[in-house]
Amino acid sequence: MATGLQLLQAISDKRRGWPPNAEFKICALDAVTLLTLSFEDLLAEKFRDTVAEEVVTALKIGDISPLAQRLGIKFVYSDDAAPLVVDAPEPVKVARTKAKKKKPVAKKKPAARRKTKVAPKKKKSRR
Question: What are the sequence ranges of the domains in the chain?
Answer without folding.
Answer: 4-77
